[in-house]
Amino acid sequence: MTDTSSPNKYDIIVPCEPDPQAATAECLFERPRDSCCIVILGATGDLTARKLMPALFNLYQHGGLPKPFAVVGCGRTRLDTPGFHKKMETAVGRVFHPDRSRWDVFAANLFYQPISFDDPASFEDLSRYLADLDKKNGLGGNRLFYFALPPSLYPKIAQMLGGAGLGHEHQDGNGWSRLVVEKPFGRNLKTAIDLDRSIHHYFGEEQIFRIDHYLAKETVQNILMFRFANAVFEPIWNRRYIDHVGIIATETLGIENRADYYEQAGVLRDMFQNHMMQILALIAMEPPSSFSAERVRDEKTKTHRSLRPFPAERLSDFLVLGQYGSGTRDGKTAPAYRQEPGVHPDSLVPTFAMMKLFIDNWRWQGVPFYLTSGKRLSRKLTRISIRFKGVPHSMFRQTLGETIIANQLVLGIFPEEKITLTFQTKTPGVRVKLRSVTMDFHYYQDQDGPFLDAYEKVLQDCMLGDQMLFWRQDDVEACWSFLTPILEGCEACRDRARLLHAYEAGTWGPAVIEKLWPDILPKSA
């Protein structure tokens, strides 16, 4: 273990002065009030390299980190602090090219502490190391522990941190301890409850930040503003005017060397229990009494508790599962899921799902919601489509026929962050003929950067102690209560293979989805 008794040049934080242009971004970046130490457990892994360190460096560049701050990487890899600097510089360089002088000042606040995740003495060494760093640099005893680790390690690491006294918060309000965990939060309702109990043994609910980075996307956050800050839409946001709602999150990528995880998860655990359920709640929730974390999360939980259970004997009427076969993408051959490294050759794990569900409450009774997500599809696309009901009586029947295309509101999240409203107007000319026209709003129009990406936003909110964009345990359990019977019904089915429909990579999924919802996905690639 690193000797924490004697200081060295890597133990002293160099004061960080943010970019001079940070003043122009004061509405986009809020500097956390409390100095703190960010401890990344699993700091040599992929998540830290791809997401966390680039996000922290970008926050620093624009004045979004406290003064002072420290980042302590912890991992099994036998590294020292200079070696950690080099590794992180390489990782950040893959995202953007940092200015050397800025990087050097930022990196002087990075430290590394080797750790053994199953050794209590190792965590006691970490506790002493952090206490020494606090004393030397005035960090106030504030610690943010980020679990950049496989979820199977969460209970053990929480126990080790708690046993070393790192879960304690000072009674006088100076010195907080927060825990950040990534999804998935268990595999089903029972494991989610067990995980929660193990973490709560040492950490209170207010200390736990369960990340869903989808919620930190700007356009996802904008859903609440769009709904509740505009009087024109909220009065028609209900069963009287809306025919159905579609939520789509599709990817062109396969499992990308994540077979160990995906073979255990599948698309329902990977996407539906978290991202899709959260977007559903933002679209369907009732107005909260105030724009505060607990009131907003109250309403999301109420929505999830109102989900109508699937009839176990009629799963195929509400759910389509698929698994990608081989195909082509951009002229290149894409392997089938069962040909991916680490995947069982007879795997029945779904990589695609379309779900039709209902919310049994006053606002949404009888309105179907269609949730769709999958891998190796035609296009990476994330959007919400609200299809309104058709006009109740056609005064144009004799001239235009029976069909008039219904109005549609689309909230685009990726690739285009925009809002579009489609409606009918007369085509210019003598003949009476309708045409569909669209009003567009592009989210970033008339705005100059910099902008927060999802991980920058969640990291900053963790430091600020704002839990608005994070899961609460009762909501986690509400979603698992809905999904666990579906998972059990699918996985216990004697003819499980019959529920799984093959689809060619690069298409929009199994052909059978047309029976569930004919207009779910775009027709073109």
Structural commentary:
This protein has 525 residues and is an alpha/beta fold. It is 32% helix and 20% strand. The chain has helices at residues 46-61, 81-93, 100-107, 120-137, 154-163, 189-200, 218-228, 259-284, 293-305, 397-400, 454-464, 473-491, 496-499, 513-516, and strands spanning 36-41, 69-75, 110-114, 143-147, 177-181, 208-210, 242-250, 319-329, 332-334, 352-357, 369-374, 381-388, 408-414, 418-426, 434-442, 500-505. The strands form two sheets. Strands 7, 8, 9, 10, 11, 12, 13, 14, 15 and 16 form a ten-stranded mixed sheet that branches. A six-stranded parallel sheet has the order 3-2-1-4-5-6. A hairpin with a 3-residue loop joins strand 13 and strand 14 (418-426).
Secondary structure elements and pairings:
Layout: E1 36-41, H1 46-61, E2 69-75, H2 81-93, H3 100-107, E3 110-114, H4 120-137, E4 143-147, H5 154-163, E5 177-181, H6 189-200, E6 208-210, H7 218-228, E7 242-250, H8 259-284, H9 293-305, E8 319-329, E9 332-334, E10 352-357, E11 369-374, E12 381-388, H10 397-400, E13 408-414, E14 418-426, E15 434-442, H11 454-464, H12 473-491, H13 496-499, E16 500-505, H14 513-516
Parallel strand pairs: 1-2, 1-4, 2-3, 4-5, 5-6, 7-11, 8-16
Antiparallel strand pairs: 7-12, 8-9, 8-10, 10-11, 12-13, 13-14, 14-15
